[in-house]
């Protein structure tokens, strides 16, 4: 049971606006200004995440399970500021008129938690407050990083998964985007979401624990000149929210096929060609998938083998990787 306590509310000049169908921010954070449709996203509330007078990303939030379905954002390559470590909640999801975010610390569930998680939900849960839209992708200003620290952008994330393989994937996608999607006119659209295929939860059933985290990347070259307009690419990534997780790298046209026909809408180029799912250059996308897969045996690319053989190879490669680290890698903590 949650008990009511007297709360001193400190309001920051941070705004998080409820915006049906993302009407106030869909032009900023979705490829070709088109919001994807995913199955099974009931009880959702669309939020345009606003700090000061600037929108930073968009979140489709599950008010029943108190976790986001996904956050959509764009990647920048500016110099990073300091990490922000405080958390916010959204008073509007508690029926409050004030659109400003409030610091989440000590906000009780009785007042604020009917449709969203509060900070106490995660305390002593053994799960991390896992960002969908990560701080490290937002280096424009300190405010851009602060805006990611609302609990409407957070879901319970396995600590080992979060700090090892998922963090590695986030770093690799940043570097890959810097290498292959930093040409003039390129735009980098990301959607990161969760899948919840079990009833596991924390905080006495208040907050659902996702079974998987996923990210879809679109390097949009539709706005560049003719010579490099075909340089765009896309791919999808899926990892189980568990210890010793693998990351499955997917060709975008097959990614989350049970949930949506496409995450990135069709685009007709100047010659009348239809570009599906932001896949301007499939060869480049396949090469990027190969390059990412080569960085770690836990990154599994699609191959035309039986499922049994794929699982065997993944386990064998991961075992070899661990043995190599244990036997041949020098200790750095001695």
UniProtKB/TrEMBL annotation:
<protein>
    <submittedName>
        <fullName>Uncharacterized protein</fullName>
    </submittedName>
</protein>
<dbReference type="InterPro" id="IPR039015">
    <property type="entry name" value="ENDOD1"/>
</dbReference>
<feature type="domain" description="DNA/RNA non-specific endonuclease/pyrophosphatase/phosphodiesterase">
    <location>
        <begin position="53"/>
        <end position="273"/>
    </location>
</feature>
<dbReference type="InterPro" id="IPR001604">
    <property type="entry name" value="Endo_G_ENPP1-like_dom"/>
</dbReference>
<dbReference type="Pfam" id="PF01223">
    <property type="entry name" value="Endonuclease_NS"/>
</dbReference>
<dbReference type="GO" id="GO:0016787">
    <property type="term" value="F:hydrolase activity"/>
</dbReference>
<dbReference type="GO" id="GO:0046872">
    <property type="term" value="F:metal ion binding"/>
</dbReference>
<dbReference type="InterPro" id="IPR044929">
    <property type="entry name" value="DNA/RNA_non-sp_Endonuclease_sf"/>
</dbReference>
<dbReference type="InterPro" id="IPR044925">
    <property type="entry name" value="His-Me_finger_sf"/>
</dbReference>
<feature type="domain" description="ENPP1-3/EXOG-like endonuclease/phosphodiesterase">
    <location>
        <begin position="54"/>
        <end position="262"/>
    </location>
</feature>
<feature type="signal peptide">
    <location>
        <begin position="1"/>
        <end position="16"/>
    </location>
</feature>
<keyword id="KW-0732">Signal</keyword>
<dbReference type="InterPro" id="IPR020821">
    <property type="entry name" value="ENPP1-3/EXOG-like_nuc-like"/>
</dbReference>
<dbReference type="GO" id="GO:0003676">
    <property type="term" value="F:nucleic acid binding"/>
</dbReference>
């Amino acid at each position: 049971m949650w008990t009511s306590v007297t709360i001193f509310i400190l309001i920051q000049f941070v705004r998080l606006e409820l915006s049906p169908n993302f009407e106030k921010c869909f032009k900023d954070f979705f490829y070709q200004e088109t919001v994807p449709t995913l199955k099974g996203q009931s009880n959702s509330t669309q939020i345009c995440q606003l700090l000061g007078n600037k929108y930073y990303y968009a979140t489709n939030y599950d008010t029943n399970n108190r976790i986001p379905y996904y956050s959509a954002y764009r990647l920048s390559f500016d110099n990073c500021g300091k990490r922000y470590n405080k958390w916010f909640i959204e008073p509007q999801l508690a029926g409050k008129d004030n659109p400003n975010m409030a610091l989440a610390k000590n906000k009780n569930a009785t007042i604020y938690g009917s449709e969203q998680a509060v900070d106490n939900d995660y305390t002593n849960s053994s799960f991390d407050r896992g960002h969908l839209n990560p701080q490290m992708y937002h280096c424009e200003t300190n405010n851009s990083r602060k805006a990611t620290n609302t609990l409407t952008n957070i879901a319970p994330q396995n600590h080992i998964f979060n700090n090892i393989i998922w963090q590695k994937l986030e770093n690799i996608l940043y570097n890959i985007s810097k290498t292959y999607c930093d040409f003039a006119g390129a735009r980098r659209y990301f959607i990161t979401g969760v899948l919840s295929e079990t009833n596991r939860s924390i905080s006495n059933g208040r907050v659902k624990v996702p079974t998987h985290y996923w990210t879809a990347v679109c390097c949009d070259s539709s706005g560049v000149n003719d010579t490099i307009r075909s340089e765009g690419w896309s791919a999808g990534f899926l990892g189980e929210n568990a210890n010793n997780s693998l990351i499955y790298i997917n060709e975008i046209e097959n990614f989350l096929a049970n949930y949506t026909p496409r995450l990135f809408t069709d685009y007709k180029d100047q010659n009348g060609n239809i570009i599906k799912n932001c896949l301007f250059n499939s060869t480049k996308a396949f090469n990027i998938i190969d390059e990412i897969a080569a960085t770690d045996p836990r990154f599994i690319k699609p191959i035309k083998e039986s499922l049994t053989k794929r699982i065997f190879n993944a386990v064998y490669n991961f075992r070899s990787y661990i043995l190599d680290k244990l036997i041949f890698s020098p200790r750095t903590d001695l």
